[in-house]
Design brief:
The complex is a heterodimer. By secondary structure, chain A is mostly helical. Chain A is built from 13 helices and no strands. The longest helix of chain A has 30 residues. Chain B is globular and about 55 Å long. The chains are: A mainly alpha, B alpha+beta.
């Protein structure tokens, strides 16, 4: 129990330490790829290996980033939010690596050829779209940008995440569908759907719903109040 | 017309560039021991992991048929036996090499059925003796956009077709492959309709390039490469070359084939290697040669019919964009 009380209020210093630790941990997938490259352990088709691996890690980090807020609410570990920016930037980092491999090793920086590929193939279209939408989020991730935009507008912009992550999963789904390998895409879809559902069913939304309900008819207000009370609101 | 030949496509390897197979074998044996030791040491998994490559792979003597040997440098044995699409043994290309040890290749029979004068079965021994074994070095182009060069051992399928003595009704040939849950862990995944089936038009099956294959790299086929008997159709995408065949049926109508049944708009019955007809999800104009093209090298151009222009005559007058 003590362990949990400690976690619910971490000191500034602890959070920073944790963030540094996470910074290093999040680099391990890349370090592993580099090490595998030097050890000749990327298999018979190294480019396929690193393409898939960076794509996988991009999806992992997108999901982890999306999980921060629900986890914070569930545990009331409010310091979790202070790790979110770095996790999001790592998602961007792995997406950018994934895209770079595509741009470089598939198309050798031939923009025209790459563009033809992007418009012709839906799975690439959505993948590149997801990457493009991530760019403004990465750019506006600094404290200065948050100030300049103002909290409200910044938050609205960053809700793009709710579009980006499903696009990423759709990209993955369409890649795997070619060979009828849908187990992983289904798992990712379920996780992302769950994480997005927590937003839809958030406290605020439930309150909004209750207000809307009460405005519809006074008779229902009481009932809704009871529901909220039961849930400890 | 100026024909450019990339120097690396006519490169004949120096003997020193190819690691001798004994060296591979000893390296593998060593790694197996190390792995087995580690597993035993951990005390969690027990001893005796299934290693697909037997310690003593059986040699399969055959004379090189230089008329059917491309000059490209053969793919390393290690790559050709650890990077396999064989969904019956798992969907990851590293899976078959790990899990195909459970495949029992002896005894093995192939039954010849359908539009033939008299159906019969052949055991592997009889199959091996049906015609002289030849070594042929073929390019192998996977529909996924990578390629290898493999020294196969076998003989033209036409020899078996002659023996089968098909009736005039036989317009197509269907290959039915093994589907045994006890031996093939991948069958529990309903990814494709098992058994995996493939097929060819009769004239394609009779083309001398179509190889009934029992070995590769001087040995009997490793399990993960489709042991004990498969077909190799070098001008078509790799999935047309059915593995671990148990039944060959001569039929009147175009047979249903595994990938075509899954997605007809993506995998045609013919599936000839064709740089001008893209797979809906990726371009087929170029390919990566496994183990050969450098990490930062541009992909090489894919050749029509995988470079086997001899077969063009089979498709005269056919719109290959329609019959892809």
């Amino acid at each position: 129990m003590r362990f949990f009380t400690n976690l619910s209020s971490l000191s500034q210093r602890r959070v920073l330490q944790l963030r540094n630790l996470l910074f290093v941990l999040a680099l391990l997938p890349l370090a592993r790829l580099v090490a595998f490259g030097f050890l000749g352990r990327l298999g018979a088709n190294p480019i396929e290996f690193i393409t898939r691996n960076t794509g996988d890690w991009a999806l992992y980090f997108l999901c982890i980033t999306l999980a921060v807020t629900p986890l914070r609410k569930l545990t009331r570990w409010n310091w979790l939010v202070r790790l979110r920016r770095m996790l999001g930037l790592y998602a961007f980092f792995y997406v950018a690596l994934h895209f770079t491999i595509f741009f470089w090793l598939d198309h050798f920086f031939d923009v025209q050829e790459m563009w033809a590929d992007i418009v012709k193939r839906p799975f690439i279209t959505v993948g590149v779209l997801a990457f493009a939408l991530l760019i403004p989020l990465a750019i506006t991730s600094t404290n200065g940008m948050v100030r300049r935009l103002g909290g409200k507008r910044w938050q609205w912009l960053h809700r793009l995440t709710y579009v980006i992550v499903p696009l990423g999963v759709l990209h993955f789904w369409w890649v795997k569908a070619g060979k009828n390998l849908l187990a992983q895409p289904i798992l990712f879809s379920a996780i992302v759907a769950l994480l997005l559902l927590t937003r839809v069913l958030s406290e605020k939304n439930r309150e909004r719903l209750a207000q809307w309900w009460s405005r519809r008819g006074a008779g229902n207000t009481e009932a809704m109040g009871i529901v909220l009370m039961k849930e400890g609101k | 017309m100026l024909i450019k030949i990339r120097p690396d496509q006519i490169d004949i390897p120096l003997a020193s560039e190819i690691t001798p197979q004994e060296v591979y074998a000893s390296r593998r044996a060593f790694m197996s021991k190390v792995a087995a030791g580690a597993i035993a040491g951990s005390g969690l998994l027990g001893v005796g992991g299934a290693f697909a490559q037997p310690a003593t792979a059986r040699k399969l003597p055959a004379r090189l048929n230089s008329a059917y040997a491309v000059m490209d440098k053969p793919t390393a044995y290690q790559d050709a036996t650890t990077y396999n699409n064989y969904y019956e043994f798992g969907t990851d290309k590293a899976d078959p090499a790990r899990t195909a040890g459970t495949l029992k290749t002896s005894p093995w029979t192939v039954s010849i059925e359908g539009e033939v004068k008299k159906p019969f079965t052949l055991d592997l021994d009889a199959l091996m003796k049906l015609a002289p074994l030849e070594e042929r070095i073929y390019r192998l182009r996977c529909v996924e956009g990578w390629s290898m060069v493999i020294p196969w051992i076998g003989y033209s399928l036409s020899a078996l077709i002659r023996k089968a003595d098909p009736t005039g009704n036989a317009k197509y040939i269907e290959f039915v492959t093994l589907a045994d849950k006890k031996q093939m862990p991948g069958l529990s995944d309903p990814i494709l309709q098992w058994p995996y089936t493939e097929g060819l038009r009769m004239d394609e099956a009779n083309h001398p390039l179509t190889l009934l294959t029992m070995g590769m790299y001087g040995e009997v086929l490793p399990n993960q490469n489709g042991a004990p008997v498969r077909v190799i159709v070098p001008w078509k995408y790799g999935f047309k070359s059915a593995k671990s065949i148990v039944k060959i049926r001569f039929v009147k109508d175009q047979p249903k084939t595994a990938w075509n049944m899954y997605a007809a708009q993506e995998y045609g019955f013919y599936s000839n290697v064709n740089p001008d007809v893209d797979h809906p999800r990726w371009s087929q104009a170029s390919e990566r040669r496994i183990g050969e093209d450098g990490f930062f090298a541009r992909k090489r151009k894919t050749l029509m019919f995988n470079g086997y222009n001899d077969v063009a005559g089979l498709y005269t007058g056919m719109d290959l964009k329609k019959y892809f």
